[in-house]
Design brief:
eight-stranded mixed beta sheet; 23% strand; globular; alpha/beta
Length: 221
């Protein structure tokens, strides 16, 4: 891990991409537009069969201008958890977060969570509430309410398995904690179960994530 500014630690954002040519540029742009400045961006295309790679390549000049460090990789498909682990292992930041290539971040998301980590030095993982929106960018209020229902300071595996709570996609980690204590994401499990089995969590009530779902799927959240 590189030495970071104590007041404004380097934050690594990893975007795993798979067949999201329609949305990946919007996802990248939402990281470019963050209020927080000290960011590196790592984009990994996980064997997309559409034009995602070309769409990402179009964003390279803007990324190289904006970020402290930018890296783009594309290779054969390995799966989501393997891709997240790859991104986390090459990350230089003290803090690491992830953004799906069809989701976006509110412009103050990273600043909000960095501020949380500063106030809560004992915490290694935190998440925020999230908006749910459709392919046209429309906020789906009922799905948003459901996605944030029952979020609490400590989410347990039982909460997830009984569908009491939907584990949020807005998590950020202290990088050493994710890699050294948790050992990364368990590639034999689904992403969310991989986290919940092994990690206590803390929450912020701020709405800083935007989770995209097709309108037909919104009722299934």
């Amino acid at each position: 891990m590189e030495s970071n500014n104590q007041k404004n630690p380097l934050v690594s954002v990893v975007i795993p991409c798979y067949n999201h040519e329609q949305f990946v540029q919007e996802s990248i742009q939402s990281v470019i537009d963050q209020d927080y400045k000290n960011i590196e961006l790592i984009v990994i295309d996980d064997g997309s069969k559409d034009c995602s790679v070309e769409k990402i390549q179009e964003m390279i000049p803007a990324c190289e201008e904006r970020f402290v460090r930018f890296e783009f990789r594309h290779r054969a498909n390995k799966g989501l958890c393997a891709t997240l682990n790859e991104g986390a292992r090459v990350a230089k930041g003290e803090i690491v977060g992830f953004c799906s290539s069809d989701d976006t971040l509110h412009k103050n998301k990273i600043q909000t969570q960095v501020d949380f980590f500063k106030r809560n030095t004992h915490s290694d993982f935190c998440y925020t509430q999230t908006y749910v929106f459709d392919d046209n960018g429309k906020i789906l209020q009922s799905a948003t309410d459901l996605a944030n229902k029952n979020l609490s300071i400590n989410i347990t595996f039982h909460d997830i398995i009984t569908f009491k709570v939907h584990f949020p996609v807005t998590g950020m980690y202290r990088t050493n904690f994710l890699l050294e204590k948790l050992g990364g994401f368990d590639e034999s499990l689904s992403l969310y179960f991989s986290i919940v089995f092994r990690c206590d969590s803390e929450t912020s009530n701020r709405m800083t994530g935007l989770l995209r779902v097709p309108p037909s799927a919104a009722g299934d959240l």
